Amino acid sequence: MKPQRTGRGRAARDVLVVLFDEVQSLDVTGPVEVFTGATHAAGTPGYRVRTASLDGTLVRTSSGLTLVPDGALADGPAPHTLLVPGGHGTRSSDPRLTDAVRDIAPRAQRLVSVCTGALLLAEAGLLDGRRATTHWMFCEKLARDHPEVRVDADRIYVRDGHVATSAGVTAGIDLALALVEEDLGRDIALTVARHLVVFLRRPGNQAQFSAQLAAQTAQRAPLREVQQWITEHPASDLSVEALAERARLSPRHFARAFHAETGTTPGRYVERVRLEHARRLLEDTADGVEEVSRCCGYGTPEAMRRAFVKHLGTGPSEYRRRFRTTR
């Protein structure tokens, strides 16, 4: 089959999405909506999306939805992009599915996985010697079961040559938008992002989860209120003594209770919230480093620089520069 041409004379990119029982439906529909939306926004057939299961039969997603594939994996032209979504089905996949993905991969110009789809790519030997990521809950499994894969657990997506892997669910949308920007330009990607009401600003090196998601939510109302206070007032006095007073507990009792219910110490939680807030200001504003450090409770630019180097391996100014070059 000859590749379809766009109005500008460019070939439409065939995207083949692999379907299987117990697939995560959002891992499928998120990228599919991005690619089809980009085609509509461009006014040309920029992408031609095809879904396929092993035998072309219906699949049941992990949420119970039934998806109807366009055909079987063995049929159809070689894809430009082979996309493997995640879901429970990747953890106990049919060996025939692994073989099918392994067979198709050499004929694809780009390999993409969403969430635990990386496990299937790794099982097929397609991530050997490459950097990759997956849902944070399965990064350890990926590294343990496939030591030849260099797992980067703190990225929402990772590009290594023609292979791109992403973290859970919404990270697949971020990666798909990044691919659209690469293929069709930033204006098209931005149009799709606006239509889907998502941000076109998360680069692949952004952490998978925020301080609030990384820590557990406290069960007791006073401790939950303190967590919220920390998030909303990073520049305030967030010492254990000040936070304990807000929770109406002694400092020792507060520190023990906070750790027991959130899984982290008050100091580490404050540190992560301040770092996260500083990163957002550096990404979204033109405020200087000194002003950002003051707004985030660091006190001095040097204190903020030490925090950035400790957790991110780079200073605030360099972090801002890298962020803007990856947008």
Automatic annotation (TrEMBL):
It comes from the Bacteria. InterPro entries: Class_I_gatase-like (IPR029062), DJ-1/PfpI (IPR002818), Homeodomain-like_sf (IPR009057), HTH_AraC (IPR018060), INH-QAR (IPR052158). Keywords: Transcription, Transcription regulation. The keyword Transcription applies. Residues 224-322 form the HTH araC/xylS-type domain. It holds the Pfam family HTH_18. This is GlxA family transcriptional regulator.
